[in-house]
Amino acid sequence: MHGRMNGEVTKEDGPQGNASLRVEIIQKAVNSDGHFKHQQIGEPDLTAEEKMTIASDLLDNKPAVFLSRFGKYLLEKELAYFPSGDYTIDFHMSQIRRQRLSSKSEVKNRRYEAMKQMTAQGEYFSDEEMKRREPLLYEQMVGQYLSEDEIQSKVDKTDLRFSSILMSHLEITQDNELYKTQKATEDDDLEQMKPEDSESEEESELESEEEDGRPKISDKERARLKGEFLLLMQQRFMAGDDEHFDYSHVDSNEAYDCMDLVNQDAEEKYFDED
């Protein structure tokens, strides 16, 4: 029915008749940290070829055992390779999917708790820190609507040491470079999308909306945009899309399990996308 040469998988058909998927599944097992066989102390590690032979034998002859050892490393499309209707296989499939749902919920809850703590501490989700991470988005939703007095009030005039001034200058320079990069990317995208005759119309509309070089909107609208900016940054954090944050400090940290978040409706808006 099948043959192997030098440990290479050559079987044509698996439980679902998909040879390429079978190869993919076995390779996933070989590259995993799953258990292949009991070894004595001092015995050399298994080679990739030996692992492939063991994984192939298990997949062909004991698929339920294969699932118990390597199922957690497989994607959903790879799990679909295994036939349903067998009690033991169905049991392991159910266990794998249940663990994934539990783990996914656990990670969300930990991120939510971390986000609440950081928001309350007033640093990571402060205006200045969010501006440093996303200068273009901040300028579009918050910064361009600040008055000159508000801008000046954010300048720390109490610490005039040279080292502090130099550090502040370096941070501003870095922020400006990130802003320029993000702005250039956005401009390129918009340039490809807009009609050629729209530029002059947009400029005239912009000039009519500006006064003293800064757009003017109501205080209510400013508060709404600022709130939306914060919510957007929080949602990005929850989704794992904040490239400035090391999620390994939260996702696997049991210290964030102290709160029961499962049944709190207030959190659902952060989880909807998943």
TrEMBL record:
Protein origin, superkingdom: Eukaryota
Region annotated Disordered, chain positions: 178-221
Lineage: Eukaryota, Metazoa, Spiralia, Lophotrochozoa, Annelida
CCD97-like C-terminal domain: residues covered: 109-274
Organism in which the protein naturally occurs: Capitella teleta (Polychaete worm)
Protein name as it appears in the record: CCD97-like C-terminal domain-containing protein
Pfam family name, one: CCD97-like_C
Residue spans of biased composition, Basic and acidic residues class: 178-197
Compositionally biased intervals (Acidic residues): 198-212
